[in-house]
Amino acid sequence: MKAAPFEYVRPGTLAEASAALGRDGITTAAIAGGQSLLPMLNLRVAFIDLLVDISRLEELRAVTETPDGLHIGALTTHAAIEDGKVPDLFGGLLRRVAGQISYRAVRNHGTIGGSVALADPAADWPGCLMALGASVRIAGRDGVRSEPVSEFVRDAYTTSLATGEIILGFDLPRPDAPLRWGFAKVARKSGAFASSIAFVVARGKGGPVSVVLTAAASRAHSCSQTAEQLEQGAGSDEALRRAIASDLLTFAQDADSYQQRLHTATILRAIREWRAQ
Amino acid sequence: MTDVTIDLNGAKVSHAVEPRQTLADFLRELCGLTATHLGCEHGACGACTVLVDAQATRSCLQLAVMCDGRSVQTLEGLRNDPVMDVLKRHFHECHALQCGFCTPGMLITARDILRRLVKPEAQTVRHELSGQICRCTGYAGIVDAIVAAGQELA
């Protein structure tokens, strides 16, 4: 299929882009890598009047390491992260996640900002950034604001992004001890959106643990009871399974028995990988 | 209509396009370069893979207007490419194509794999090829050809 007609602009500055996206009375969309938006336009499940090309805005490109952590510009591609072009403060987690998104030709263009802005329930980055305690930095007509990714993503394909706002990038706090992590992902077909993704992240041994499950509900969720079990060092599989089951009851009540087993398995796999580090 | 200029296979090419026109349609319909095949038009099959600024790219998921000022290489532009020569020979020897529809995307992707990975093993090649669909060969010949080309080029 071909996309329905739309107008196109490529603003030279962030302010112009913001103004174009905020134009009254029309449907606008920002495009960066376009690897999700263009299929949606080609399949005519999304319709827009004006496409605003933000792919050449330098402000969205910065990758900077500071004493506080890492800023990853919204236009950073999955392939750039996969290839280690972004400083690794997180024990290789970002590279591992990036390398398993879709296919290389898609990773060459798809961006971390686009992934979070779309907020697909099965997308890899929102859950990963949540597990790392990252914030999203957003430029709007009234200046710049920042919000934790866990609050920014509200629901399936729904974020707090207001009209005319553009994601500048993500601020990932530097871990105060070496990061240990586990990551498990199940997709029916290699490269497809996942059926279940689990992240387990902890700072050092005995530090706070974060467990995040993606693709189980309309957005990624923290599994706080499972995390608590891990923080207490409680080891038995049985106790962990009970904690996972009660976590699933809080946000994935509709999961059928296959999905419950699937999510339990991905979380347990991620825990095993985390423990082995 | 918007004017677009692309460095296409080493020569500057300009056309006026509708914003919704994909790079794939730009190549096939306006430039007459029909090595780039269109299968699914939503990024799933990989037949339309070309190089944009030397990066493997689905040309159905790229608007021609967004490629303004960029460099694009199609299979036609890789006629004298030394890696492609080796790949084409092994594709021939390993019977890596049958109907040929997926072959342009397979070749461009194979070249990209060998550019990034030295002597990849069959398992790695299979994983890297997972975004390229072939409905004839069962993939075995394609994987064999890329592994063999990798060994020859190492």
Tell me what you see in this structure.
The complex is a heterodimer of chains A (277) and B (154). Chain A folds into 3 domains: 7-53, Uridine Diphospho-n-acetylenolpyruvylglucosamine Reductase, domain 2 (2-Layer Sandwich); 58-173, 2-Layer Sandwich (Uridine Diphospho-n-acetylenolpyruvylglucosamine Reductase, domain 3); 179-276, CO dehydrogenase flavoprotein, C-terminal domain (Enolase-like, domain 1, 2-Layer Sandwich). Helix content of chain A is 33%, strand content 25%. Chain A contains 11 helices and 14 strands. Chain A has a 5-stranded antiparallel beta sheet with strand order 4-5-10-6-7, sandwiched between helices. Chain A is globular. Chain B has 154 residues and is of the alpha+beta class. Chain B is built from 5 helices and 5 strands; from the N terminus they run E-E-H-E-E-E-H-H-H-H. Chain B has a 5-stranded mixed beta sheet, sandwiched between helices. In chain B, helix 2 (82-93) packs across helix 5. The longest helix of chain B has 14 residues, at 103-116. Chain B is globular and about 45 Å long. Classes of the chains: A alpha+beta (277), B alpha+beta (154). The interface between A and B is medium-sized, with 31 and 29 residues.
Helical/strand content category of chain B? alpha+beta
Overall pLDDT metric of chain B: 97
Q: Tell me the span between the first and last alpha carbons of chain A.
A: 47 Å
Helix and strand string of chain B, N-terminal first? EEHEEEHHHH
Uncertain runs of chain A with pLDDT below 50, 5 residues or more? none
Terminal residue distance of chain B: 47 Å
CATH architecture of the largest domain in chain A: 2-Layer Sandwich
Q: Strand count, sense and closure of the main sheet of chain A?
A: 5 strands, antiparallel
CATH topology of the largest domain in chain B: Ubiquitin-like (UB roll)
CATH superfamily of the largest domain in chain B: Beta-grasp domain
Extended strand count of chain B: 5
| Count of the domains of chain A | 3
